[in-house]
Amino acid sequence: MELPADLPTGLAETIEPLVRRVLAGNPSAFTYTGTQTYVVGNGSDVAVIDPGPADPDHIAAILATVGSAKIAAIMCTHTHRDHSPAAAPLKQRTGAPIIGCAPLTLSDDGPRSDEAFDTSYAPDRVLSDGESVSGDGWTLQAVATPGHTSNHLCLALVETGALFTGDHVMGWSTSVISPPDGDMAAYMASLAKLQERSDRVYYPAHGPAVENPAQLVRGMMGHRKQRERQVLRQLESGPQTIPDMVPQMYKGLDQRLFGAAGRSVLAHLIDLENRRLVARDGDAWRLLAAA
C-alpha cells in the first residue's frame, strides 16, 4: 500500500474552526495513513473523539493539542484497537470521563482486515441514539450506526453540520463487515439512515474528509448491492463454498487477502440466508428456489 507523503503525524491540524485533527503513527493496510483523533472545541473545554492506540507519543500529541483546556469527554465511535485503547490512559492523565459507544469484546474467529476488539475499554457513560454531550460552544450528538460493529456510533457536531463517521463511512475504502459481530443488514440500514440526514461533511477516522457525503453514501450502497448480485450469480451454477467464490468475485486480489474477503462474502451470505434467498449445506451455500 502506497501512502501519501509528508503526513503530519502527531501535529494538530485545524480543519474547521471547531475541529482539530491529530494523526496517530499507526499506518497499515486497514488504517490507511493511521487513526485520526479529533479534538472538538476551542474554548474552555473540548471533546476528544477516537483517541486511538495507546501510544505514548500519540497521547502526548493529543494533550499538546488540548493545551490548557479541560477535556470534557473522551468519545469513542467503536472499540477496535486502533480507536479506543488510548481512552484509559488519557482518562488517567486528565480525569476526563469516557463517553460514547457501548463496551464490546469478541475473540477473533477468522481472517481479519481490520483490528481486533479492545478489551480495556470501560466507558463512564454510554450514549444511545440521539443523546448528546455539550461543552463550550459545541454539541456532539450520537447517531447509532451498527454494521461495521454492533456498537458503532457516529457523532454529529450540531453547530457546523459535520459528522464524525469512525469506520462506518470512509472516503479511501469501504468498511469491513466481518461476522459474527459485523452485520450486513444492519450496515445497509445504517447507510440508509445517513442518507436521510443532511450532514455537510464527514470526518472519518481514516483517510480524507468526505466533502460529498450524500453522493458517497449512494455509491457505497450501490457497491454493496452489486456484491450481493455477484454472490447470487456465483450460486446460479450450483452450490459453492466461500473459498470457491472469492477468487471469482475478487479477480486480481492478492491471495493473502482472500481470507479477509471471504468474511465480507460470509456477511452477504448470512444476510441472504436471513432473507430466505440462500441456504447452507455444511460449508457450501446454494440458492433457494425463490432467489
UniProtKB/TrEMBL annotation:
Start and end residues of each Metallo-beta-lactamase domain: 34-206
InterPro entries in UniProt: LACTB2_WH, Metallo-B-lactamas, RibonucZ/Hydroxyglut_hydro, Sec-metab_biosynth-thioest, WH-like_DNA-bd_sf
Signal peptide start-end: none
SUPFAM superfamilies assigned to the protein according to its UniProt record, in alphabetical order: Metallo-hydrolase/oxidoreductase
Residue ranges of the TM segments: none
Protein name, per record: MBL fold metallo-hydrolase
Organism listed in the record: Blastomonas aquatica
